[in-house]
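Weekly puzzle thread! Below is a chain. First person to post its structure in token form gets bragging rights.
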Amino acid sequence: TGAASSSLGLRPRPASRVYASAVGSTVGESPAFRLVALDDVSLERTSLTGVAAMFVDSWFWGTMSSEVQEQQLVDEVAVDMRKRYSEQRTADDSQLVVALGDYGEVWGCAGVELLSMTVDGKLPSSWSERRGARLRPHISNLAVSRARRRTGLGRALVRECEQIALAWKCPEMTLFVDHENEPAIALYETLGYRVVSSVQADKPIPRKGQTRRLDPGYAFAWVPCANVFLVRDLPQGLEDD
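Winning reply:
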């Protein structure tokens, strides 16, 4: 795959757009967007600020207390994405896919990570769980710009992550969804995913009332939640799916 130096910038939120110059390798296109996969080399040469800004706006719009908090959330998400999808990764393998518009607007993103997981979706913490775990591809950091929802972009990102998993010779794809997010669960079921289990977890939310920059890691508060664990068996010839 090719690599290109790029700088992803942040534009004003009212337009709900962030911009990027060409990055990574184009892996899919439609009239509305193109999908770009970032390998280690291209990601190391790329600022992730624009992708992180779209992600924060998509997930946390209307819940942030100030512009200061929003910028800190963007900075921390960009750092987290770099740790997940570059050579800094703790997963066995990972890749980030970004959806761009005609002028480099970041319309969406999704990552896939190869993680050691049990059959019911737990990250093993004991010897017995580690014995029963195996490496499984997992979709993470999936977000679609508020301006581009209900356009098929989320489906395209999921399918591209599945293609990456097939390239890794994996027979399945996994993901988590908050159990309260019934529309998302229903959508994934239409894409061939089935509910396997429910897993207790913590989810990040913007810390209430933040008006000044805090120490790194403190812009998010973590609250308990229950995630639904979904799995899809990946067929061969998925590009025609």
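Puzzle host: Confirmed. Bonus trivia for everyone else. The two ends are 24 Å apart (CA to CA).
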